[in-house]
Predict the structure of Peptidase M20 dimerisation domain-containing protein.
Amino acid sequence: MYKLLSLKFGVCNKIIVSKAYPLLYTHTRKMSSFDKLFSKIDELKPTFINRLAKAVEIPAVSSDESLRPMVVKKAEFLLEQLEANGFTDIQRKELGTQPPPVNDENLQLPPVILSRYGNDPAKKTVLVYGHYDVQPASIEDGWESEPFKLVINEEKQLLRARGATDDTGPLTGWINVIQAHREAGIELPVNLITCFEGMEESGSLGLDALIAREATQYFKDVDAVCISDNYWLGAKKPCLTYGLRGCNYYQITINGPAADLHSGIFGGVIAEPMIDLVQVMGTLADSKGNILIKGIEEMVAPITDKESKSYDNIDFSLEDIEAASGSKTSLYQKKEDILMHRWRYPSLSIHGVEGAFSGQGAKTVIPAKVSGKFSIRTVPDIDSDKLTNLVVEHCNKAFKNLGSPNTCVAELIHDGNYWLSDPYNSSFSAAAKATKAVYGVEPDLTREGGSIPITLTFQDELKTSVMLLPMGRGDDGAHSINEKLDISNFMKGMKLMAAYLHYYAESPEK
Ligand SMILES: C[C@H](N)C(=O)N[C@@H](Cc1c[nH]cn1)C(=O)O
Ligand SMILES: [Zn+2]
Ligand SMILES: [Zn+2]
């Protein structure tokens, strides 16, 4: 085995090998390889920050139809970066038009970028997935600086911009890891395939079909999938993630008058869509965190003894949730309750209303058509179709009870499945060793309250394990204002990615 490893690492060839101590030799060799690689990563810090700065400058907001050209522009930027760093077989996969509900029915989905680095049949193949689209952001939301301009805060040692942690920082991290190998003259011990998409924040539309098509083509030799698109549980301890909640996103549209109206002339005379909407939306959940739609609770898998015990050793507290949310508004006080409600129970969130007045001042308008947006985070064993039937039935009934002459349509915008895996396979073991090598601690094994819709599809279609390797922290403000990535997480995160690939390369199973 040490011979094979020496070939793969391609460095330190002058060390005299003692056959009596192959493991010690392997370990010493690896540490020396890591030293060289990690020094190169440190040396390339300005280059990596500059690449991130250029990437986050492009406002690739997938949910805003008018910004679709920017999402495509960011894909093109990444294509250039892959090419410049020696990736081969780079393919820009078009996914066709965006399915309804959509305003522009000819709107093209952004491309998926496939590329590979290395194609050696003797090596394992790791597919890394990331998304280059981001959540919306504007300075008026309360950002300290322009969201699409990277701020390097030397005092706090952090990088601030939309996408810094979710997911442009980690995504560019994979390209950086390859650049570091090349410049350090260290052979990559695995073949790497990238799959970068531009619709994750909008339900990964079109990607399931692409993965199914490529399972026996581009992805045919994939041994493991690694996703760096979530966060540590708190702000101190690294973790590996073996579960995600799913996300079913809905809208309720209430249609009334032909145009927005003057409330002085029409108020009290016509039925107002916004008044109907707030009442229907008010029936969805209560202020204690309970979902009021009947039939959902019954689908949630019961807690096992093994699961109950799994919360004991997790490094997390009420203070962490208070610090990350900047408030004392937690619905639960005990660690187990907080974690269970983040990881293993469904939740319903109300996000906003399209078509309603939301600016400053006091506009006296009656909006003619409003769409209320809400999502339900799903967990084992909630069936997405059954859930949608329950939601639509509930909304229709609630609207009917109002006796309004307006019309109401409740519909699913997109859904993405939950995912739960075995955290003790060879990919997780490799990532645990990598965490120990980079951070000096054993990682916590966590589930994530957020969703990465495509995770289960990778697992099922490629019949491989998936492992989530977060780069950023739980207080990074993903989807929020002032999204950041600590510089230490960026730098160590790339070392972690690199070390994971090396440890995974030598794991016994394919
Ligand atoms: C965890 C990941 N970085 C993320 O933020 N995912 C989104 C995906 C999404 C958006 N709509 C539905 N799913 C999330 O969890 O909100
Ligand atoms: Zn993300
Ligand atoms: Zn996100």
About this structure: The first helix runs from residue 2 to 9.
